[in-house]
Amino acid sequence: MEKGKISALQMAILLYPTILATAILSMPAITAKYAGNDLWISSTISSFIGFLTVYIAVRLHNIYPGKTAIQICEDIAGRIPGKVIGFIILYFYIQSTGLITRSYSEFIVSSFLFKTPQIVVISLMVLLCAFCIHGGLEVLGRAGQLLFPLLVVPLFAAILFLARDFEFGNILPVLDKGIVPPLKGSVAPAGWFAEFFLIAFLLPFLSDKKKGMKYGMTAVLSVMITIVFVDLLVLFVLGATTANKVYPLMNVVRYAKLSGFFENMEAVVMAVWIVGAFVKISVFYYAGVLGTAQWLNLSDYRPIIWPVGIFVVQFSFWAEESMMDLTHYLVVVFPFFSVFVQVIIPALLLMIAFFRREKVRPKTQK
Fold first, then answer.
1. Which of 59, 133, 237, 238 gives a 20 to 30 Å CA spacing to 344?
2. Cβ-contact 124, 148 below 8 angstroms
3. Contact, 46 vs 58, CB < 8 A?
4. pTM for the complete prediction?
5. How does pLDDT run across 220-246, given as a tens digit for each residue?
């Protein structure tokens, strides 16, 4: 079904913006509402979900090599239960793709293209991602590799532009109210880190499969470091007001100046957001399309790219009515739904597969 191959490094480069794209804009505000100035600790705690997710996905792949999560469900749970579990996973990814495109359009329309209908912004992004997916996984991997510097360089260049506005005292006192607030703040980011289960749709197509675990863990570590970096960047500039912002990073870059020449860097944030959103939507979209084709036992996933794209556009409007409802969903519902589908279900499948293998082993030894 998928003839293309990507390297483990390309896989890590794809996963990095896939998790980071939406997290860097809204996660600092969501986390700060619970953890206050300890929001960076919450991001560190929640990263353990990412490490666990990658470990589970790689172990499942080692037991069932060459198969994606949808195929593994049927092998472990049986045909009918496997189809049901596979449907839950597919529903999550297709719905999440719609939510991501909705978040993307909300940011673009509310910040820059004020008079542009959201349907135009959403449809054009889904159309662009569909063309990329139609080219296959190799095209997606190369696109991610090409766009990677455009996402990373501006983030770390922000230090140079914002250094004069840093108030390092904003980080103090550390753990003033104990560990409970950072633990509460880590719940929402855990939903983002659980998205690393997307690796289960990429591992079968690695050219160097033995490096899957190494580069998967490296991707989690890189995302954790970047999110902590963004949390501290926002905290040093905005301080206690971080929790009151919708897009704290957007507010921070308005302070950016260098020698009276470089200033008003909102366009840079928009560029980073568009690049990251394109990669994230493409990877989620690809997982939904590939998984649906395997769930339906099709020989090729390309014929259903456009039908699934229509569902993505519809889900972007069906999901939530307003930005307030969307934010409520991301804080209250999404973390638990994400962890359940991408961590708990795979963990149960791994346990079943492990016990089955242990039962088979004594028989083969006899």
1. 133
2. no
3. no
4. 0.90
5. 999 999 899 888 888 888 888 888 887
